Please model this.
Amino acid sequence: MGQWEQQRRPELLKSFQDNVYGTTLPAPTTTTYDEAGGDNTAGSGSARKVTITVTGPAGQASFTLRLFTPTSGTPKGTFLLIDHRGSVGDTPGSGGYAPASKITGAGYALAALNAEQVAPDDPGSYRNGVINAFYPAGQDLPADAGRTISAWAWGASRAMDYLQTDAAASTGIDPSRVAVIGHSRGGKASLWAGAQDPRFPVVVSNDSGSTGAKLARRDTTGESISAINSGFPHWFPDTYKRYDGNAGALPVDQHELLALIAPGRVVVASAVDDANADPQGEFGSYLAAAPVYALYGLGDTGLPSTTWPPAAGTSFRGPGMSYHLRPGGHGLTDADWDIYLGSDLFQR
Ligand code: GCU
Model:
């Protein structure tokens, strides 16, 4: 474990920066939190809207974090959702992707980060959030600088900074019990956030697929590296584009990203009909991360066998790793949330 923590883990982290996600933005020069939105009661919980403003050497950017907490009792834990759809407003939804009232009803809190404000999901304007606070707008970004996915992961850490403040404590949220969760492109970012920031004891990848939980070397199954780089040129730095059609040359693979989360709990969720995300490649990656969890005595994946496919609709849980394969297609659905809310992710 000493060699893993002192040598191999830092090497892998750097290699993911150098070859896949790009360099991470530094800490802001200053950060302010504006809770002017105040608290209000919404659905089954209370809500607070916080505007986080970060200043860097080249400018300033602001993004919203919305907190929904149960009306009574201390939250059992908090789901920090990297909301890449910018879909969580002041009034919480009750089902599907970001079901605030379902989450608070189950005794948990939801913290929804507006990722569209952190970095717009658009090749023409993705720099207009936090990235241009650090890089002058008129100059090209360095080839190895992180793009949208890296910025979203960084934003999740800034949300965690807020959750650790005294002001946030009045909501009852315990910052030592925060699960960072993302769906699909958001799941790529939640994994990268969890790999870099050990403050997250639980990291959830929901259908993250290519450059998320899926093994990169299964490049010809599901979405390839060249397909993701051409379809979404603003997600990853130019350095990752060297591996278009050449996944075998990558010095890392995605099971190593999952392993970087240890000893935090990694949660991998796939959907049976989500061919683009390559569920079998996500399963392979989950299994291959187990040897690092084993260094912490957490190597039990919860799966009865390593044979693909495992039973669909069943959640499997070890002391540090969780997995499920949901029937149906791509999505963060009520069925996924039922599993997350029902499986005591914060317990070993
Ligand atoms: C596209 C993309 C995926 C991504 C997904 C999503 O399908 O190819 O990589 O995960 O969008 O974010 O829903």
Observations:
- The two ends are 19 Å apart (CA to CA).
